[in-house]
């Protein structure tokens, strides 16, 4: 027996690399800011006897020979290393550094024992942080080069535990850990060789792939890691493993897919390589964890219309609805309702939901489910309500209006966005509008215009528009909200988000349909604010939707006093003519409407003629849109009438 000490082994040191500071992932439990493990005298008195036993064993590790080292590692494995006190004991006595140093040796039993311990204690947050600070990640990643499959499995599982923070995931990528984890899964491609393996060898191959998938699952929470995984060729490997019958490997494979499905390139690959069908097939299995991961993956994949259609084609809607039968499993409900929400964005899928009577169930679930589930439920309800009047009646009959309005008391922006969208859709029915008013829903929507989140402001403004349009006395209702119109006009000058400005412009156009309210917002200088927006004084990227809403607001505001002349002096006409030349036909109608209203002023007609608007209007007269034809014709007529009057005057 060769005797030696571990003093000569190079101690691992913290890695200081500039690349490791970037791309801190959007992980739910960011451990980088957690405090270090600190010893407290009072806590030390409460430690179990095994805590002190572990400390004595660690002291033997520092100076013992190979044989004793292996024995001590075995004794440590017999301790309750899943208990926090035992895990912290190893860190406190410097045992973590010794375990990491053992990985740099060529002694297989020592490396094996060390990794088994590291795999267990790395479930502790404080231990994971200590491993990162000690610079142990490159040492563990380096074990993945070993030809020994057991060592590679243990190293991959340890990485799966450690890589729960952004800095650890960055370190794994920096030290080429992503590529090595992907290589663990490559054995699944060698089908010809797999047929020559014994049953135990095939199971070992599956276990290696499972551990590699576990490591990638943790690492895939980082955007840069997803890109590195794609470059390493992980997609075809995941597609192959997704067809496996081993549920133990399916769970980390689907988990990795659902993390990567947030990227459009991965979603395209999932659709094109037939993985949607495999996800639906695995969704029908009995394993609850696998069901949940499949539903979560479909939740993200169904952002795209093609994926939603594939889920329906492969009969995946009913298995998703069946998951609603597990109210005690909230993670399952969140995944299932999320997938149902995204699937309901397609009309044909909504028809299936109608036939299965799911809508009433989802409405009733709003009373009892937690916030993350209600976000998805309200999104699905909004999509179903937009599909047909029959669905809106079902929502009303199940007390849905009151339940939707109750969600407006939340502070969660995602729930507020979905709730306001649902209420806005419901307001298109007069019966629903009455219920919304009785529940004080319009006032609550108006108060959300003060919300700090732009998405909430924009969604609330859009929801108020149908409430005004379908109210029996909309003008009086708007005036009843003290400071409401002042807030709307203020947003036109203060908001910097394109969606907010677009929605507020649409709201201004709706408010302006009442003569008295139009006079009020005119006094609040709405004309000046709208004119500034046409000149894009905030340097906001103007979408076609924004241009359409802005033109509609200008056209509506022209119908009060001398607003037409004021708009002309504010030089809005050149910009409106530019809107009219947009390739998007949705902009043409509101722009033509605004120009028609402005053409009632002779000075504006001169400006329009100078901008060459007549030729553009003549082309649009041939449109199939009757309103657009009429607006263009009236505008041309007004310009022509002024020209004829001017000609007659010169002849005199």
Question: What topology does this entry show?
Answer:
Layout: H1 41-45, H2 49-63, H3 66-78, H4 84-92, H5 95-102, H6 108-121, H7 125-134, H8 137-143, H9 149-162, H10 166-174, H11 177-183, H12 191-194, H13 199-219, H14 223-231, H15 234-241, H16 247-260, H17 264-272, H18 275-283, H19 288-301, H20 305-313, H21 317-322, H22 330-343, H23 347-355, H24 358-365, H25 371-387, H26 389-397, H27 400-406, H28 413-426, H29 430-438, H30 441-447, H31 454-469, H32 474-480, H33 484-494, H34 498-511, H35 515-523, H36 526-534, H37 544-557, H38 563-569, H39 573-580, H40 585-598, H41 602-610, H42 613-620, H43 626-651
Helix pairs in contact: 2-3, 2-4, 3-6, 5-6, 6-9, 8-9, 9-13, 11-13, 13-16, 16-19, 18-19, 19-22, 22-25, 24-25, 25-26, 25-28, 28-31, 31-34, 33-34, 34-37, 36-37, 37-40, 39-40, 40-43, 42-43
How far is it from the N-terminal to the C-terminal residue, by CA?
A: 124 Å
Helix content: over 70%
Question: Count of helices?
Answer: 43
Q: What does the largest sheet look like?
A: none
Tell me the Rg in angstroms: 33 Å
Low-confidence stretches: 1-22, 24-29, 37-42
How many strand segments?
0
Mean of all residue-level pLDDT scores: 88
Query: In percent terms, what proportion of residues is strand?
Result: under 5%
Indicate the structural class: mainly alpha
How would you describe the shape?
Answer: elongated
Explain how this protein is built.
By secondary structure, the chain is an all-alpha fold. Helices cover 71% and strands 0% of the residues. The protein has 43 helices and no strands. Helix 11 runs antiparallel to helix 13 and helix 34 packs parallel to helix 37 (544-557). The longest helix is centred in the C-terminal third of the chain and has 26 residues, at 626-651. Residues 1-22, 24-29 and 37-42 have low confidence and may be disordered.
């Amino acid at each position: 027996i060769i005797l030696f000490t571990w003093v000569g082994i190079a101690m691992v040191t913290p890695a200081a690399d500039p690349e490791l500071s970037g791309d801190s992932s959007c992980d739910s439990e960011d451990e980088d800011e957690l405090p270090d493990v600190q010893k407290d005298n009072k806590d030390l008195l409460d430690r179990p006897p095994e805590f002190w036993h572990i400390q004595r064993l660690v002291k033997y590790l520092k100076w013992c020979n190979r044989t004793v080292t292996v024995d001590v590692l075995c004794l440590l494995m017999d301790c309750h290393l899943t208990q926090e006190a035992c895990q912290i004991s190893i860190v406190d006595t410097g045992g973590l550094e010794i375990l990491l140093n053992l990985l740099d040796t060529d002694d297989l039993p020592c490396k094996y024992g060390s990794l088994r311990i590291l795999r267990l204690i790395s479930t502790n947050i404080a231990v994971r942080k200590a491993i990162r600070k000690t610079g142990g990640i490159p040492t563990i990643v380096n074990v993945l080069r070993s030809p020994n499959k057991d060592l590679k499995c243990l190293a991959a599982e340890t990485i799966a535990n450690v890589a729960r923070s952004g800095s650890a995931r960055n370190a794994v990528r920096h030290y080429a850990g992503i590529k090595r984890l992907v290589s663990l899964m490559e054995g699944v491609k060698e089908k010809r060789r797999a047929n020559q393996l014994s049953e135990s060898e095939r199971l070992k191959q599956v276990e290696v792939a499972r551990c590699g998938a576990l490591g990638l699952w943790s690492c895939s929470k980082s955007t840069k890691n997803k890109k590195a995984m794609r470059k390493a060729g992980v997609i075809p490997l995941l597609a192959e493993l997704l067809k496996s019958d081993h549920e133990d490997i399916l769970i980390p494979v689907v988990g990795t897919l659902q993390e990567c499905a947030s990227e459009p390139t991965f979603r395209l690959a999932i659709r094109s390589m037939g993985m949607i069908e495999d996800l639906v097939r695995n969704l029908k299995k009995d394993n609850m964890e696998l069901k949940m991961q499949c539903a979560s993956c479909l939740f993200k994949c169904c952002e795209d219309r093609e994926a939603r259609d594939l889920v329906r084609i492969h009969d995946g809607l009913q298995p998703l609805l069946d998951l609603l039968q597990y109210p005690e499993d909230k993670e399952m409900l969140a995944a299932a309702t999320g997938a149902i929400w995204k699937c309901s964005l397609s009309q044909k899928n909504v028809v299936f939901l109608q036939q299965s009577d799911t809508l009433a169930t989802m409405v009733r679930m709003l009373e009892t489910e937690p916030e993350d589930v209600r976000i998805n439920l309200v999104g699905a309800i909004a999509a179903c309500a937009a599909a047909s009047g029959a669905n809106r009646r079902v929502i009303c009959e199940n007390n849905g209006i009151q339940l939707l309005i109750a969600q407006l008391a939340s502070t969660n922006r995602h729930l507020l966005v979905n709730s306001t969208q649902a209420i806005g859709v419901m307001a298109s029915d007069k019966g629903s509008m009455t219920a919304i008013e009785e529940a004080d829903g319009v006032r609550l929507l108006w108060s959300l215009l003060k919300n700090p989140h732009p998405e909430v402001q924009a969604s609330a403004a859009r929801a108020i528009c149908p409430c005004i349009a379908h109210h029996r006395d909309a003008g009086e209702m708007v005036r009843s909200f003290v400071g409401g119109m002042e807030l709307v006009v203020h947003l036109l000058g203060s908001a910097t988000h394109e969606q907010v400005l677009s929605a507020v412009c649409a709201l201004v156009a709706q408010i302006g349909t009442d003569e008295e309210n139009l006079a009020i917002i005119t006094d609040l200088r709405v004309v000046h604010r709208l004119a500034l927006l046409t000149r894009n004084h905030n340097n906001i990227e103007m979408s076609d939707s924004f241009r359409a809403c802005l033109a509609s607001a200008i056209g509506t505001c022209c119908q009060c006093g001398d607003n037409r002349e004021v708009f002309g002096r504010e030089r809005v006409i050149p910009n409106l003519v530019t809107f009219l030349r947009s390739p998007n036909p949705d902009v043409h109608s509101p722009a033509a409407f605004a120009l028609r209203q402005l053409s009632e002023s002779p000075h504006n007609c001169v400006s329009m003629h100078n901008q060459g608007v007549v030729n553009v209007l003549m082309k649009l007269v041939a449109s199939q849109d009757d309103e657009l034809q009429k607006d263009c014709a009236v505008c041309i007529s007004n310009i022509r009438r002024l020209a004829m009057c001017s000609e007659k005057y010169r002849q005199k």
